[in-house]
Amino acid sequence: MAKQGKIFLTGASGFIGYHLVAQAVARGFEVVAAIRRSSQVSHLEGFPVRYIYPDFNDIAALRQELVAGQYDYIIHLAGAIRARDQEAFNRINAELTRNLALAALQSGIPLKKFVFLSSLAVVGPVAYDSPVPITEEKLSEPITAYGRSKLLAEQYLSEIKELPLVTLRPTVVYGPREKDFFVMLRSLSKGWEPYIGRRCQWLSFVYVTDLVNLCLDVLSQETEPGITCNISDGNVYAREEVAQIIKKILDRKTFRFYVPVGVVRALAVLIERLYRNSARLPLLYPERVGEITAPNWNVSIEKARAHLGYIPRYFLEEGLTQSLAWYREQKWL
Fold first, then answer.
1. What is the pLDDT of residues 312-331, one digit of tens each?
2. Residue 243 pLDDT > 80, yes or no?
3. In-domain check, residue 185
């Protein structure tokens, strides 16, 4: 197979990174993964990936690495979804992103694309009865420190005009190896169907294969400089509908119950205090409660369709069927 080009990839050790490596290698790209020395990469052993360990705090060192590698593309997936505070989020998600972009520009390499994986969290939700979905033109009103840090990263990148930038803002990404959404799948598989509060919600999702295929598709496309696109499977789902799909696939009956939002918020505050002096970070914290109980994450992908040729292949039932099959095969369920 003819080589398609050389990719400098961050975030290879993560859930999305694994799937991107698999698809990139299958398409004939050469992949060089920039990771920390502490990163767990045993699950990538079967792929012909070369690992490097650059210091993202050092622009000069990054520049030298890029010059040495003469990369065709940069795909920047790495980031923190949990951090101690806003300052930590900003440093990891925004400042290190800016460092990589500046190093790429200063290196003088003939870079064809810089793909930045942002998040729908940058924009924030809309009201439950909003007559229009979330578009790229919506005023960004992130409701979490994570979302604010990703917005700052986008702002930094927008200031680097010569960068061949494509920014993708996926909604909830799911698929084999994902661990956060998996918590819900495991609960339903055990017969428990909990909800936080009784207020209705509209949710959106994107299957990981659709997302990584788009990341690779845009590498060879002529794109509008600095284009930003929201990404989902193009549908919106009521929260109970999501559970019904999962129960159908699992052939499982469940006990449905509702936990008051106030109780969960109080629990999140308590957990945050308990973890205050811990090196570990909690899965549940006050801002996270606000995010997972937001009324409406319905998102428009019309811009991605029109400008990137994006056609999602997996709707929720098909994506979950494949995911649950993998979790069962791997004895996660």
1. 999 999 999 999 999 999 99
2. yes
3. no
pLDDT of residue 67: 96
Secondary structure of the chain as H, E, C letters: CCCCCEEEEECCCCHHHHHHHHHHHHHCCEEEEECCCCCCCHHHCCCCEEEECCCCCCHHHHHHHHHHHCCCEEEECCCCCCCCCHHHHHHHHHHHHHHHHHHHHHHCCCCCEEEEECCHHHCCCECCCCCCCECCCCCCCCCCHHHHHHHHHHHHHHCCCCCCEEEEEECEEECCCCCHHHHHHHHHHCCEEEEECCCCCEECEEEHHHHHHHHHHHHHCCCCCCEEEEECCCCCEEHHHHHHHHHHHHCCCCEEEEECHHHHHHHHHHHHHHCCCCCCCCCCCHHHHHHHCCCECCECCHHHHHHHCCCCCCCHHHHHHHHHHHHHHCCCC
Rounded to an integer, what distance in angstroms lies between the CA atom of residue 304 and that of residue 165? 14
CB count, 10 Å around CB of 326?
A: 15
Residue 251 and residue 203: Cα distance in Å, rounded?
Answer: 23
Residue 108 forms part of a structural domain: yes
pLDDT at 280: 86
CATH code for position 308:
3.40.50.720
Average pLDDT across the chain, whole number = 95
- Domain housing 41: 6-174+207-231+297-313
Q: What angle do CA 320, 325, 331 make, to 5 degrees?
A: 125
Q: How confident is the model at residue 215 (pLDDT cuts 50, 70, 90)?
A: very high
Residue from 292, 286, 291, 276 nearest 84 by CA: 276
Give the tens place of pLDDT for each residue, 273-308. 998 888 888 888 999 999 999 999 999 999 999 999
User: For the chain, what is the domain count?
Assistant: 1
The answer to whether residue 109 sits within a structural domain is yes
Q: In this structure, is residue 14 part of a structural domain?
A: yes
